[in-house]
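Comment thread on ticket #2218

A.B. wrote:
> Attaching the input chain for the structure job we discussed in standup.
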Amino acid sequence: MAILVTRPLPDGETTASALRAKGFAVLLAPMLRFEPVAFQDDDDASYGAVIVTSANALRAVAARLQNSPLLELPLFAVGEHTAAAARAAGFSNVISAGSDAEGLRERILAAVKAKELKKTSRLLYLAGADLARDLAGELGTRGFAVVTRTTYRMVAVAHLPEETRKAFATDAVEAVLHYSRRSARAFIEAIRAAGVEVSALALPQYCLSAGVATVLRDAGAVRVVVAASPDEGALLAALAERI
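C.D. wrote:
> Ran it. Output below, let me know if you need it in another format.
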């Protein structure tokens, strides 16, 4: 039996490798597809720092960032995965909140208190087209000027891979991993379209956060497990504890 990974590529491949190293069989069914968006910014604009809540935002503009003055700015990343992508893109001063968007907001506020960042400086937010929360707006209410630039979009995948549909139909899936509310919603639509909703939602659903878990519970899943913290290490640890 296999663990189904719904995480978009290329991160889904990384997750699959980690699971295989732990002895699990894996099926990949990415429920969102990454698409870069043309990055438009004023080269003469002045910023005090960069904010990123997804590694995809950096992947989308990696080529554009070469020799960019943005690389000299501090970059505030939501977690270590995104922080690693920032370092790979060429940023040297990377601060990881090690949390979620709320934690990132608090880390930025803490940087101002510690005089690591001037509140009067404009912040550049490299973001996706569909945001789970209005981080720029939240920082705006705290007196920050935030410029949001969309660098990518995630497009829902309408259908399950045929191999995955057959695996659900033959009870060959042991559990499902979910990483975002949008991918969870796309998963639910796809299993309904494939006619395997009942068997799929009867399985354990491992979720990166409580918000993701709510999507699965609302759809009828009852065996829902939430990671102790919103990072993949905690999610895989939860899986290892119960399987």
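A.B. wrote:
> Thanks. Noting for the ticket: The chain has a mean pLDDT of 94.
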